[in-house]
Design a protein that fits this description.
By secondary structure, this protein is mostly helical. It has one domain. Helix 3 runs antiparallel to helix 4 and helix 5 packs parallel to helix 7. The chain starts with 5 loop residues before the first helix and ends with a helix.
Length: 285
């Protein structure tokens, strides 16, 4: 496993993306009628949302799923449809982002191998729970509360802005499992949970963001596989809009990783997510 190269990781990402594209084309196109192919104002709004969310995620290693899920819940989208749409879009956006991080060598392969397997397992379990076990209407305010906590975590991380001496990361496998599980259930959380904790333990921020972002492709791919099998592909306009905006932003975010003022951006993101989550909770009560 230690002999795996960046090139091999990159080709694996490309291959899995092509497999998903072929599957979606085979399953969706025959069901679409000419009347269904109508792009309204909402579609273009989601292109913007996808662009902004992926720019943030590619730069900070967090907040794509949280941002998109918060917005979808506020638009009245059912929790399981929202999280399925976000993860389907993430397969494409995180794939481009991961390839760019690999190109700029923003990745620690040893850490990547420690988090990618358990993270994927956690994501598949979480996808099954939100699709088959948990009642979407009942869990909606709890998901919003979960996102509220994540928003506050991001704010706290931005305010503290502390750097520790780099050392061996502890419990990375379990951290990834919990991150993947929560990410699939809540539609976001992989980045805030995994990136924040690893940086808190003292890992170099650039390598942490690149590694977690690249691993996120596999978390999104396997959870999406479960969603497609159980939920199917719903709200294709939302998915397509998020993909279009995210794919454009992904390489930009990866290039900005070492240049942007992360502290100010993290605090701003946290405030937006926190306020949006509070509003969602208020509407659910």
């Amino acid at each position: 496993m230690d002999q795996i190269t960046n090139r091999q990781i990159g080709w694996t990402i490309v291959t899995l993306k092509l497999i998903l594209i072929c599957f979606l084309l085979i399953t969706i196109l025959p069901e679409l009628e000419v009347a269904d192919i109508h792009l309204d104002k909402t579609f273009y709004q989601f292109i913007i949302v996808g662009f902004i969310a992926q720019l943030i995620d590619g730069t900070l290693g967090m907040a794509y799923g949280v941002s998109c899920s918060t917005l979808l819940l506020n638009f009245g989208v059912a929790p399981r449809v929202a999280t399925a749409a976000v993860h389907t879009a993430e397969v494409f956006t995180t794939g481009v982002s991961g390839l760019t991080h690999l190109r700029f060598k923003n990745i620690d392969r040893k850490l990547f191998l420690r988090i990618v397997v358990t993270g994927s397992i956690g994501a598949m379990i979480g996808a099954y729970l939100i699709s088959e076990v948990l009642d979407g209407n009942v869990i909606k305010p709890y998901i919003a509360a979960y996102l509220l906590v994540l928003g506050m975590v991001i704010i706290t991380k931005g305010i503290r802005n502390r750097q520790k001496v780099e050392k061996e990361i502890k419990h990375a496998e379990w951290l990834a499992f919990i991150g993947g599980l929560c990410d699939a259930i809540g539609g976001g959380g992989w980045g805030p949970i995994v990136t924040s904790n690893i940086i808190h333990q003292g890992k170099n921020p650039r390598e942490t963001i690149g590694t977690v972002n690249t691993a996120e492709f596999f978390i999104a791919f396997f959870s999406t596989g479960v969603f497609i099998l159980i939920v199917g592909v719903e709200s294709w306009q939302i998915v397509l809009g998020l993909i279009a905006g995210g794919v454009i932003a992904a390489p930009i975010g990866a290039m900005l990783t070492s240049k942007i003022n992360k502290r100010v951006l993290m605090i701003s993101i946290g405030i937006v997510i926190t306020l949006s989550s509070v509003y969602t909770i208020y509407r659910s009560l």
